[in-house]
Every structure is written in structure tokens, then in C-alpha cells.
Design a protein that fits this description.
The chain is 59% helix and 11% strand. By secondary structure, it is mainly α. The protein has two domains: 1-31, no CATH class; 34-101, Winged helix-like DNA-binding domain superfamily/Winged helix DNA-binding domain (Arc Repressor Mutant, subunit A), CATH 1.10.10.10. It has a two-stranded antiparallel ribbon. The longest helix is centred in the C-terminal third of the chain and has 25 residues, at 99-123.
Length: 129
């Protein structure tokens, strides 16, 4: 069974909203929390940020920012790049998926979820009523 991303409860709420905003649609389609949406939007404004920089900008603990980034990366909404430091070592820098690609990913995710629901409907028989 394919795990569908969109949250059914959020989907219902979204349908009742006359003009849902980007943050609401993003949260619904990818079933992410508000703090993950804020992290994504901050990355849109500050590409190449480190976890420490994001933690400062978001006023959140670094471990929480790391979890948000992990979720965003799993959903295809953020990318990580390793940068070598002059004094040795490295740091990871994060960037949000560019908006045109993010929109396409939202469409694709919603299309997959819709196909999953259609398949479920087709599987129902008289015994399911």
C-alpha cells in the first residue's frame, strides 16, 4: 500500500477555505507541520543557510531545525550541500527546492494521492457497504 502524504483532515479544512494560502496548501499536500512550512519559507528567502543560521532566524533549537530539514528533504522540498571550511572540516548548507519545482512536486504528490483514492474506491464491493 502506498502511503499517501495529504492529511485527510487538512484536506477537508482546505476545501472549506475560500482562498487557502500557500502555507496551508503546502502543509496539507505534504502533511507537514507549521514549523516545517516556516523552515521551508525561510529557506526560500535565505538559500545556503546552515542549521545554526536557520535556528537563529526561526528562533528554534538546532535539533528541532535539523528534524524539520530532514522532513523537508524527505519530501523533496529542501536540498543539502556540503561546503568545505578553510580551516578544515565541513558544514552543511540548505536550500529550498525552487518554487517552480515545489509547485510541480505539489501537483505530482496530489495526483498520486488522488490516484490512490480512486484505486481504493474501485476496490470497494457490496460487502464493504
Amino acid at each position: 500500500m502506498v502511503e499517501a502524504d495529504p492529511s485527510p483532515q487538512r484536506f477537508r479544512e482546505l476545501m472549506l477555505d475560500e482562498q487557502p494560502g500557500f502555507a496551508d496548501v503546502l502543509a496539507c499536500v505534504f502533511n507537514v507541520q507549521e514549523h516545517e512550512v516556516r523552515t521551508f519559507l525561510t529557506l526560500q528567502d535565505h538559500p545556503g543557510s546552515t542549521v545554526a543560521e536557520l535556528a537563529d532566524q526561526l528562533e528554534r533549537d538546532r535539533s528541532n531545525v535539523n528534524r524539520s530539514l530532514s522532513t523537508l528533504r524527505d519530501k523533496g522540498l529542501a536540498e543539502r550541500e556540503r561546503r568545505l571550511l578553510d580551516g578544515g572540516g565541513h558544514v552543511y548548507q540548505y536550500s529550498a527546492t525552487p518554487m517552480p519545482e515545489a509547485r510541480e512536486l505539489m501537483h505530482d504528490t496530489l495526483d498520486e494521492w488522488t490516484a490512490y483514492v480512486h484505486d481504493r474506491i474501485d476496490e470497494f464491493g457490496e460487502e464493504d457497504i
